[in-house]
Write a structure and sequence with these properties.
By secondary structure, the chain is an alpha/beta fold. It has helices at residues 52-63, 83-98, 103-129, 144-153, 170-175, 196-205, 226-239, and strands spanning 2-8, 14-20, 23-29, 36-42, 67-71, 134-143, 157-163, 183-188, 211-216. Helix 3 packs across helix 4 (144-153). The two termini are 26 Å apart.
Length: 240
């Protein structure tokens, strides 16, 4: 891991950009002499890690005493997209707008992205936990499909908040039954891109004995800000 820049933000949080091979990332952390618990924030595929809503949530968690890290998945943010990825994204958006079935398009596009992203997150986790200021435990927040894969393959994930997506690859729907870490699932009731019933079915499928569902009215980007505060309280219970 190589840090490429750092700056002290007006809330006292230190923001550092890093690279890990070809993977770019950002680490936010408060001043602290003690090793910090860590939250991995994996954005929904396609959003850069510098997207303002994601940065705001990361900074709030850091101000609450967490080290928070995000990386750009392949094809996101600073990483180049292939022509095939661009075509798949465009076809998925077109089909969703037209109300056409999207399962097979989604499966052929998102499934491979999860397979690529999860190993990169494990590599990043190894490097982050090697830093003297980070000691764990580790939480996960964000993209549901990657969160499921990490929750069943990475024993260091102690708790997770997931932004409930109705469209999750079949492999992750099966893996959901093997998730045992405590979960907080956030659902936007009127999410135009994620069928509500699928999200509810996914919540029902999770195998963990401790799972909570927060549902709010509104579309995909309308998650109320107080949910970020509740998410930090959830992590306080499980990581501190």
């Amino acid at each position: 891991m190589r840090f490429t820049s750092e700056r002290r933000l007006d809330d006292g949080v230190l923001e550092r950009e890093f690279t890990l091979g070809e993977i770019p990332g950002t680490l936010w952390a408060p001043d602290s002499a003690a090793p910090l618990p860590l939250i991995l924030t994996a954005h929904n595929n396609g959003l850069p890690r510098r997207e303002p809503r994601l940065v705001a949530r990361a900074r709030q968690s850091a101000a609450c005493g967490y080290a928070v890290a995000s990386i750009d998945a392949a094809g996101c943010g600073d990483r180049p997209r292939s022509a095939a990825d661009e075509r798949a994204r465009a076809e998925l958006r077109r089909a969703m707008r037209a109300g056409e079935p999207v399962d097979e398009i989604f499966e052929s596009f998102i499934g491979p992205l999860v397979e690529k992203a999860a190993p990169e997150w494990r590599t990043a986790l190894d490097a982050l936990l090697a830093l003297p200021e980070i000691g764990g435990p580790v939480g996960y927040s964000g993209w549901t499909a990657v969160g499921i894969r990490l929750a069943v393959t990475e024993p260091r994930i102690a708790a997770a908040t997931l932004f409930a997506g109705g469209y999750v690859p079949r492999a992750q729907r099966e893996e959901a039954r093997r998730v045992t870490a405590p979960l907080l699932l956030l659902l936007q009731w009127d999410d135009e891109g994620n069928p509500r019933e699928r999200a509810l079915d996914l919540f029902d499928a999770f195998g963990t004995r401790e799972k909570t569902l927060h549902a709010n009215l509104g579309g995909h980007t309308g998650t109320p800000w107080f949910e970020a505060e509740d998410g930090n309280r959830f992590f306080d219970r499980h990581l501190k």
